[in-house]
Structure formats: C-alpha cells, structure tokens
Amino acid sequence: MIGRVDVSEPASISFGIAARYAKAVFELAKESKSLAGLEGNLGDLTQALTESSDLRAMIASPVLSRAEQGAAMAAIAKKMSLMPALQNGLALMAQNRRLFVLPQLIAHLNAMIAEDKGEVSAEVVSAKALTKAQSDKLAKTLKERVGKDVKIIATVDESLIGGLVVKMGSKMIDTSIRSKLDSLQNVMKEVG
Question: What angle do CA 95, 155, 62 make, to 5 degrees?
C-alpha cells in the first residue's frame, strides 16, 4: 500500500535553510561594504512580497520548474536593481528549489544587519500590513521594554484574522485572534 507523502517542510527546517543562505549573503555584503544597500534591497523585497500575491505564489509553487522560478526571480531582481550578492543568493535558492524560504531569509538578513548596527530586531506578523504610524508606535513601545532601538521586521499573515505576533529573540507575544480561538477550542475540548 502506498501512503501519502508529506512534502511540506517543518518550520524549523525552513528556518535552518534560510539561515545558511542569509549567512552567505550577509558575509558577501559585509565584505563589499554594502550592508546599507542590502538593507534597502530587503525593504523592497518585503514590500514586493506584501503587495504581490503572484510573487508569493511563484516562490511557493511546486509546479514551476527550477528554470522557470530562476528566470522569474532573475527578472524581478534585475527590475528591482538588487545587489549582486542578493541576486546570486536568490538564483542559487531557485536552482535548489528553496525560494519558499524567502520570507525567512529576509527576516534573518534583517536581524543580522540590525545586530551589526547594535539594534534589536522584532519580527512582527500581522493580519494586515502595518501603517507607518502603527510601526513607529510599536517600535517605541518595544524600545521602552528592552532599552535599545528596535527595528520592526513586518510580515503579513491573513490567517491571523486580527492582532499581532511579535518575536524578539526567544520571546514571543501572541495577541492574534487565531491563537485566542485555538485556546478557546482547546478549553471547549476539555469541558466536553
């Protein structure tokens, strides 16, 4: 009997994959003294991922071939004028069918740049994109808690319904409606 094969990779594996690519891109950018350019590129990529459902679908598509993903990513990188180290990293990721970890790669690189600058980074996942005012207010509140400048690395996950998930180092604050519904469901199972 042939069972179903689960081809999805656990988050920890995706995290590890992204960390290796991020380290390589970071070291190349630091060596060429272009961390500021890399930081700008990451902001552009984050905005593109947030605004383009086609881009999100392309990086996650198991149907597209390596060559098709590579060509699409190369065209995007060229149009966005991404620095060579990042372009090469994305090309290698496409070649190895690892583009699905692009959001984690961006988060890793942002954290590495922030650490290099003496900042603390906070990964913030929200149901809708944060406005500049919301992001600034959150950064100010977090700065009061940790005593350092906090760089917000924002991503959108519509499945949260509402609220935020904030990760800073090993600490996580989850105020999402999805997590509250999950807790309520667990309580209901215990009662029933």
Answer: 30
